[in-house]
Amino acid sequence: MGVRVMVVDDHRLLAEALASALKLRGHRVLAAAAPAAGAADLVVARAPEVCLIGTATPAEPGIFDPVVRIRAEAPQVAVVVLGPVPSPRGIAAAFAAGACGYVRHDERIEGVERAIVRACKGEAVVAPQLLAGAFAELLNPAVQPDDEGQRLLALLTPREVEVLVRVAEGEDTRVIAAGMGIAPSTARTHVQRVLMKLGVGSRLEAAALAARTGLLDRAAPVVPGQRSASEAVPERPRGRRSP
């Protein structure tokens, strides 16, 4: 006896083609729906044994929210994700949401059918080569030079990076000026330029953004040894001469 299956994918043609192939192999396909955003409502209402949900962006935040809802409202339904070659984060996100399997979009129909049968039995479904690739990437992570922290760091001059580090440490304009040996007006200008380049409206936002993107960790080797405010020699006021 075939398995009661529901196919959901943002690409209607792909969903319908897969549904037709599964019907020819004796499975009872309840619906082939698109887009995936409406998957939860259909699955909860129809209660198939297995739901195949397609996604093109498995690492995108919130992409597996329908899976979370299905598992919460229809826990008897086994969910298998159909997606591209995933990153370890994509596989982890799918299983964390409650999916019991991950199958590549380009898998042969025989492989999809095996995944459906195994999922229906309560087994976890991930192709060995996907696991091998995921572990390989986790053990030997690729360098990502274009991440947000690196991009933001490239916008700032070394002086502005030092100002940002001091802002993140809670220093006010007077302390920044004393620590860097510059006039308060110059320190204030540097702070404003940092806020402008980072696209934020306050020092607190700048500090939060720097911490979230890892910019502060990257900035550490860029900023030379800083003097504390107590060690700094403040800039001599202009316009007056020492006696």
TrEMBL record:
Keywords: DNA-binding. Residues 222-243 are annotated as: Disordered. Transmembrane segments: none annotated. Residues 149-214 form the HTH luxR-type domain. This is Transcriptional regulator. PROSITE patterns: HTH_LUXR_2, RESPONSE_REGULATORY. It comes from Streptomyces wadayamensis. It comes from the Bacteria. Gene3D superfamilies: 3.40.50.2300. SMART domains: HTH_LUXR. InterPro entries: CheY-like_superfamily (IPR011006), Sig_transdc_resp-reg_C-effctor (IPR016032), Sig_transdc_resp-reg_receiver (IPR001789), Tscrpt_reg_LuxR_C (IPR000792), WalR-like (IPR039420). Residues 4-120 form the Response regulatory domain. PANTHER family: TWO-COMPONENT RESPONSE REGULATOR.
